[in-house]
Amino acid sequence: MKYISTRGNIQPVGFKEAVMMGLATDGGLLLPERIPAIDAATLSSWRQLPYRELAFRIISLFADDIPANDLKRLIDSSYDSFDHKEITPVVKENGVYIAELFHGPTLAFKDVALQFLGNLFEYLLKESGQKMNIVGATSGDTGSAAIYGVRGKENINIFILHPHGKTSPIQARQMTTVLDANVHNIAVKGTFDDCQNIVKELFNDLTFKEKYALGAVNSINWARVLAQVVYYFYAWFRVSDEVDSPITFSVPTGNFGDIFAGFVAKRMGLPIDKLLLATNENNILTRFINEGDYSIGSVVQTVSPSMDIQVASNFERYLYYLFDENPARVRDIFTRFAATGRMDFTDEEMRTVRREFASRSVNEQETLDTIAAFHQETGYLLDPHTAVGVKAALACVTDGTAVCLATAHPAKFGEAVEKATGTAPPFPACLAGIEQLPTRCEIMEANRTAIEKFIAEKAR
Ligand SMILES: Cc1ncc(COP(=O)(O)O)c(C=O)c1O
Ligand SMILES: N[C@@H](CCOP(=O)(O)O)C(=O)O
């Protein structure tokens, strides 16, 4: 399998090189040259596979330059740290299916891909004898999942930029209490979009990228999206065992990585009816789908802080397919967007979008009310991001079956959950004592030059 760029200006590369490249060197995002189609017989033969085996079947289609035994070992060990034998179990509460993606070590869906990516980096660096400096941006969850994926690993240094004071207190502590020498947290005085911009600028400076061997842990890295495709299949098998009606996945969305993984699963042939894109009040993607209006606004702070994002990086991957795999159109729309802050689409394109996606924006009160009502009726605690997806499903999926992705554990967002239910969620064992642990973190202005200097000083 070869990988190409959404901007069309790189020579195709293999999977291993795509993982190491992170952001494509022409500023675009990497995609497989073709998405493999899964026929009905293969799909049915995968139905009973345990999670790790299913992950191997799917990932090996895209990662054919890694020997099968090595890939299997990497995948198997990536899920040893999960506290549920099914890895991503599906539960049913009040008629709503919930795919629990938060059973990894940092209690968010990011662990599913980042435990794998950490192992993959370690394997590839051992093979090449190189070192890597990971630079990533987080609105709260990618950061700790990436840090846990690579802490203490040889030949890897990690720099994570998060918006200062804008994550939940537990999210910040999950990052800054990791004191391993290879871990560097930077709290940026700005928004997640500022952090992501700086990271992209550093990757686009090809001299800096090469000199410091930068590695990407954000969903700009294709391996992130790939590992997330697996749980769509896994959940679909569990739910389609029980129902005949069309299945819609409701996906709380920020950077468009998770829902893009669903789009890939659908394109591979998984019978998904619609992808329901659920946003909080940062609703640029909902405006796009429902009104054809993709115009940038300013970031609003919400009780679902991991989705406080305006510019979703993986949207570019989707646009590549919307534009019939035409990189010139992708380049053109991003050039205009940089100048005007908006994108324009034809009526035909918007019809295509609405065949694949539906969308709902969920406000603060609705999010809190959903947590409260769900808890009262079922005893089940939703985290605020999951609540956004559940509310969108309850409002939009009137015909058919909804599977809501539960992207984080409620204990990460204690304040919001307490506000909704009147009681703080119980702490799982992995968070015990976290509020008392010492922390290390550099607070910096949203200034690329200063951050670049900091990374250059600490890089190894
Ligand atoms: C808990 C949680 N839910 C949902 C999202 C949105 O996922 P994505 O950015 O892949 O759209 C994020 C962060 O990205 C998250 O941390
Ligand atoms: N919500 C994310 C934002 C970064 O998204 P990514 O999927 O591109 O890593 C976070 O929690 O950091």
From TrEMBL:
The modification N6-(pyridoxal phosphate)lysine is found at residue 110. It catalyses: O-phospho-L-homoserine + H2O = L-threonine + phosphate. Keywords: Amino-acid biosynthesis, Lyase, Pyridoxal phosphate, Threonine biosynthesis. It is an enzyme of class 4 (lyase). Pfam families: PALP, THR4_C, Thr_synth_N. Its EC number is 4.2.3.1. Residues 2-79 form the Threonine synthase N-terminal domain. One of its GO terms (biological process) is threonine biosynthetic process. Transmembrane segments: none annotated. It comes from the Bacteria. Its cofactor is pyridoxal 5'-phosphate. InterPro entries: Ser/Thr_deHydtase_PyrdxlP-BS (IPR000634), Thr_synth_N (IPR029144), Thr_synth_N_sf (IPR037158), Thr_synthase-like (IPR004450), Threonine_Synthase (IPR051166), TrpB-like_PALP (IPR001926), TrpB-like_PALP_sf (IPR036052). Residues 93-314 form the Tryptophan synthase beta chain-like PALP domain. Pathway: Amino-acid biosynthesis; L-threonine biosynthesis; L-threonine from L-aspartate: step 5/5. GO terms for molecular function: pyridoxal phosphate binding; threonine synthase activity. PROSITE patterns: DEHYDRATASE_SER_THR (PS00165). Belongs to the threonine synthase family. This is Threonine synthase. The lineage of its organism: Bacteria, Pseudomonadati, Thermodesulfobacteriota, Desulfuromonadia, Geobacterales.
